[in-house]
Amino acid sequence: MSHTLSQIPPDILVARDYEGAARERLSSSVLDYIAGASGEERTLHANTQAFAQAWLSPRLLRPLTQGHTHLNLLGQALPHPILLAPVAYQKLVHPQGEMASAQAATAMDACFVTSTLSSIPMEEIAQAASRKWFQLYFQPDRAVTLDLVHRAEQAGYSALVVTLDTTIKAPSLRLQRQGFVLPNDIQAVNLSPYPQPPTRTLNEGDSIIFQGFMADAPTWDDLAWLVRHCQLPVVVKGVLRPDDAKALQAMGVAAQIVSNHGGRALDGVPASLSVLPAIRAALGPDYPLLLDSGIRSGSDIFKAIALGAHAVLIGRLQVYALAVAGALGVAHLLRTLREELELCMAQAGCATLADITPDLIHSSGNGVAPC
Fold first, then answer.
1. Dihedrals phi, psi of 91, to nearest 5 degrees
2. Which residue among the candidates 45, 70, 229, 261 is catalytic per the annotation?
3. CA-CA distance, 238 to 355, in Å (whole number)?
């Protein structure tokens, strides 16, 4: 990890420039950990391609002097629809790790989502973040899962984000070829108070996948149990199918995040953006729906909102900005994304987020068809 800059490099003109700047500052192995994805990385590339292929159809002569990006999400008034996604082990790229990102989120009135696998305790991060959600991975022991939930509630987090698409992950070929392992001083500190799960014994003929890794995978019953026992609104991350979305809505899940984990889960699934319209149609117009995976600009955020999202989460760009300039970089990234969104709204004739509707996405050619 190289020294973090104390000012924004002058050649960072747009949000996506942080990726190139980070490439110059990170080791090849850490860069591959952040930039890479599972399998052959087809879904990783599909995510950005989907945004590139969604063309805009702007309106003319609209009054915009009262324009703004305000919204209400899970009962909270937010000044803009940009959240910082849960990203693990942020100390890999900056000594302050998640603390710096949380401070940047507070400075820019953004919600910070703390990962179960954060490299700083959730309670410390909560003190730095004014708007905060906690992201949960189910643990093999329900008592441990419930204790993580209670810790999040006591620390002042206002929602629980349950990630369901990475119970098991295909290995990153990039990282296998690099021989990458986490440094000893980078740990999932939120899990350190709990005993290691016992090693599972396989019988002859058992599958290491089904009877091994998946033996403790959560089910619909586990999620229903969590919803009953959690005092916070439960948000599910990793939704790609309308039928799953409708079942989650019926169960009482408060909001959902359309996500393929940035291509880091099952390789070969469609881009998050491409399935968003069908999921929005299944859930109705008012149900809280967010999107991540592939966003690199304010115009990408505009496209996600046009196709059905109320808000978006920023993952890789957050870490790139953190690597380049710490809290200052993440704050500048958030400001840049918001300004890029406002510029796109103004040019497309949208004074508010509610004005960003599906007809603003050009439906012919190779673009993403609106719902």
1. -65, -15
2. 261
3. 27
CA max distance for the chain: 72
Delimit the domains of the chain by residue range: 17-51+67-192+218-359
pLDDT for position 197: 83
Query: What homologous superfamily does CATH list for 17-51+67-192+218-359?
Result: Aldolase class I (3.20.20.70)
- Give the number of other Cβ atoms within 10 Å of residue 275's Cβ: 23
| Whether 193 contacts 150, CB under 8 Å | no
**Could you say which DSSP state residue 360 is in?**
G
- 68 has catalytic annotation: no
- For 295, the token pair is 């966003």
* Cα–Cα distance measured from residue 251 to residue 224, given in angstroms and rounded to the nearest whole number: 7
Which residue ranges of the chain lie beneath pLDDT 50? Answer: 1, 365-367, 371
In degrees and rounded to multiples of 5, residue 69 shows phi and psi of -120, 25
- Give this prediction's pTM: 0.94
Beta bridge partners of 289: 256
Coil, strand or helix at 270? coil
